[in-house]
Design a protein that fits this description.
This protein has about 725 residues and is an alpha/beta fold. It has five domains: about 5-205, P-loop containing nucleotide triphosphate hydrolases (Rossmann fold, 3-Layer(aba) Sandwich), CATH 3.40.50; about 210-420, P-loop containing nucleotide triphosphate hydrolases (Rossmann fold), CATH 3.40.50.300; about 435-520, Winged helix-like DNA-binding domain superfamily/Winged helix DNA-binding domain (Arc Repressor Mutant, subunit A); about 525-665, Sec63 N-terminal domain-like fold; about 670-725, Orthogonal Bundle (DNA polymerase, domain 1).
Length: about 725
């Protein structure tokens, strides 16, 4: 099907032509035939790189021509950024009224109503940000004509799934019914999901690059599709390495998916030793420049950065959630530019970014499962997501995905279970329970019952509440009897904890419940915060207590297991800070579970060097960044609840802690840290040289300041400091 035949304006057609689109792929044409441009809801289940983004763009163009808003939902921030760049190109077009198209992105700041977004035509959001806007009752949402839901199969994800499920459930009972376009690479029960949403399914196995799936066993790769076996030379360094290196010899690229972060870096270090002989001098020169770019752009002098700088020199890198933003971007761009030949990655790469390779190798089909308590086979869905990285359009005529077997029996099982196996059905995760402090809680249901009640300004009756939850995927699969009893359990919890109240047969949120919902924190987090706030006493230092309550909260995110090697450090830590902890029922095991993150945060606000912090508790730069970002968000929530409960003696300590977490400093640097371009290192250098206050800097000469023993504190830098202080007003009347 030709682009020119689409029912779009000439301007839109010309735009698509200018972007290089002349004809549609078969799955794209199927979407048109199924009513994409006739306002039909669609669920598109087609392989990676089959052109789902173009389907979304075509639909968006039509809605813009009809002066409607478009929302694009992404499960991940990295993926949202990719889509923002794709849709940003539409800003070259004008709307029918002559004004320019505006594309915006918002992936965080859940507390804000983001009023500025109302002036945008195409809005890229994470699922959580959209959920937050629904809670705020944003009026302009009624102007949205199209909602694109990327990776819609993640409804079944135990972490993100319930939020997406409730977003859709609210759409289904809304007076305003936008067109829904769900996109996914892999849905087995697509008919069922489509029926739930009131959509038509578009299913295809067509790929622009053919996929060959195979299993390595006893020195060779055998393929499902009858392609000739490939013999793999044994280097003695490991099978996954040998398979990836074999592709480099063919001037191709490989991704190795590994079980753990440590395995990813370990494999990369082994591969690096083998690469110089496989690369040309020109390739090595390009890689040296890329390595220097990382060294220059990443100002953090960590062991991980040093290792990546060396690995990239020889065309290899690792990729996981612990890698910082700067090196991750350089690794991804270096791989897309075909400079980096092999990436060793954890499975987060499979769902996170569009980064295809000619060959994808699974070093193991086992992953650690916390619920199982050991290594457990990955799902077929996860396997298929990794398959989606195989094959680069415009570069390859086929992609390869390779599993590794240790014997013929295991080889047969891998063919049966993964290569020829069916993807698991998507099932609701809404009623998953989580054990906290020895008690099971319906963590997701608590959140969404409260959000629904707090979003109803005049309250909501139980029948109306159940009407919403009866539109969930859970009810479709399991009926409404069990769900109704679980909703009642949630209401009981929320009533007992004073998040809601019952009045005239309606449930209304209390001020506490409303604030909890708008702060976008979990009710269990809010109740812990409240208990800590209400138990606090004037004159007590609660710095570590606040951080401990935050780190142990339901909202904090990734924590790290307690190791035997942590024992002595843990006991000295507890002994030192015990008096600062809140007595809100945290057990010793909970303290142990949060210890490594808590120790990292403590080291951060006491100005330890980042590399020393990472080595102290054995975490990665990305983990420290996530921990500080999570802490900043939750400290803000803690502060807002402190205001709500009028516990004034905590306000200044919390404000001080917020600054210390943001800047990574001791309290004594607060006064000078706010100067422009004066971070934690330079403020410490100034302080140790006697410049302990802004007043001392104000009274000193440029020459005196520039004598500070730090290479960046030059006369010109000192002059900038003085210029910032020209309007300084001292408390000393003699100075004023």
């Amino acid at each position: 099907m030709n682009i020119s035949s689409l029912d779009l304006s000439e301007t839109s057609i010309q735009f698509l032509h200018n972007q290089g689109f002349k004809t549609l792929y078969p799955p794209q044409a199927d979407c048109i035939k199924t009513g994409l441009l006739e306002n039909n809801n669609l669920i598109v289940s087609t392989p990676t790189a089959s052109g789902k983004t173009l389907v979304a763009i075509i639909s968006a163009l039509q809605h813009i021509e009809n002066e409607g808003k478009i929302i694009y939902l992404s499960p991940l921030r990295a993926l949202a950024s990719e889509k923002y760049n794709d849709f940003k190109k539409l800003e070259s077009l004008s709307k029918p009224n002559g004004s320019s198209i505006k594309v915006s992105i918002s992936t965080g700041d859940f507390e804000s109503n983001s009023e500025y977004l109302k002036n945008s035509d195409i809005i890229i959001l994470t699922n959580e940000k959209f959920d937050s806007l629904q809670r705020h009752g944003i009026k302009w949402l009624s102007q949205v004509g199209l909602i694109v839901i990327d990776e819609i199969h993640l409804i079944g994800d135990s972490y993100r799934g319930p939020t997406l499920e409730m977003i859709i459930a609210k759409m289904l009972i809304s007076e305003h019914s936008p067109q829904i376009l769900g996109l996914s690479a892999t849905i087995n029960n697509v008919e069922e999901i489509s029926d739930w949403i009131g959509a038509k399914p578009v299913v295809s196995n067509w790929r622009p690059v053919a996929l060959s799936e195979g299993v390595f066993c006893f020195g060779q790769i055998d393929f499902k599709d009858g392609n000739p076996p490939i013999d793999i030379e044994n280097s003695g360094e490991g099978t996954a390495i040998d398979i990836a290196i074999d592709m480099v010899k063919q001037n191709g690229q490989s991704i190795i998916f590994t079980e753990t972060r440590k395995r990813a870096s370990s494999l990369a270090k082994k591969i690096e030793k083998m690469m110089p002989l496989l690369l040309t001098q020109e390739q090595l020169k390009e890689l040296s420049e890329l390595s220097q770019l990382l060294d220059k752009k990443d100002d953090k002098n960590t062991d991980m950065k040093k290792l990546l700088v060396e690995l990239i020199k020889h065309g290899v890198a690792f990729h996981h959630a612990g890698v910082g933003n700067v090196p991750r971007q350089i690794i991804e761009s270096g791989f897309r530019d075909r400079k980096i030949k092999i990436i060793c990655a954890t499975p987060t790469l499979a769902a996170g970014v569009n980064l295809p390779a000619r060959r994808v190798v699974l070093s193991s089909y086992l992953r650690y499962d916390m619920q199982y308590g050991g290594m457990y086979p990955i799902s077929v869905l996860d396997y298929k997501q990794m398959c989606g990285r195989a094959g680069r359009p415009q570069y390859d005529d086929k992609g390869e995905t390779i599993l590794i077997a240790n014997n013929e029996s295991e080889k047969d099982s891998l063919f049966d279970n993964y290569i020829n196996g069916d993807v698991e059905d998507i099932e609701s995760a809404l009623l998953i329970e989580k054990e906290i402090a020895g008690k099971k809680h319906l963590t997701h249901l608590y959140t969404h019952v409260l959000a629904t009640i707090s979003s109803s300004p005049f309250g909501i009756s139980k029948p109306d509440l159940l009407k919403l939850f009866n539109n969930t995927l859970y009810t479709l699969h399991n009926g409404n009897d069990d769900l109704e009893s679980k909703v009642e359990d949630s209401l009981e919890f929320l009533l007992d904890e004073n998040f809601i109240e019952k009045r005239n047969n309606k449930f209304l949120s209390t001020r506490f419940g409303k604030q909890t919902s708008l702060l976008y924190i979990h009710p269990l987090t809010a109740s812990d915060f409240r208990d800590a706030i209400m138990s606090s006493q004037k004159g007590t230092n609660y710095t570590m207590g606040i951080l401990q309550v935050i780190a142990s909260s339901a909202d904090f995110g990734r924590l790290f297991s307690f190791r035997k090697s942590d024992e002595s450090l843990y006991y000295s830590f507890i002994h030192k800070y015990q008096s600062q902890f809140f007595d809100i029922g945290h057990s010793d095991s909970e303290h142990r579970f949060t210890f490594r993150i808590l120790a990292a945060l403590n080291a951060w606000i006491n100005e330890k060097k980042e590399n020393d912090i990472l080595n102290l508790v054995d975490i990665d730069p990305g983990d420290l960044y996530s921990a500080t970002e999570n802490t900043k968000r939750l400290l803000n929530a803690f502060y807002k609840l402190t205001v709500l409960f009028q516990t004034r003696h905590l306000l200044d300590p919390i404000s001080l802690l917020q600054l210390r977490i943001e800047k990574g400093i001791k309290s004594e640097l607060i006064e000078i840290i706010g100067l422009k371009d004066v971070g934690r290192v330079l403020s410490r250098a100034l302080f140790d040289s006697g410049f302990k206050t802004r007043e001392s800097l104000y009274l000193s000469s440029i020459d005196d300041i520039s004598k500070t023993p730090h290479p960046l504190i030059t006369p010109s830098f000192a002059k900038k400091i003085k210029e910032q202080l020209k309007d300084f007003e001292s408390d000393d009347p003699n100075i004023r």
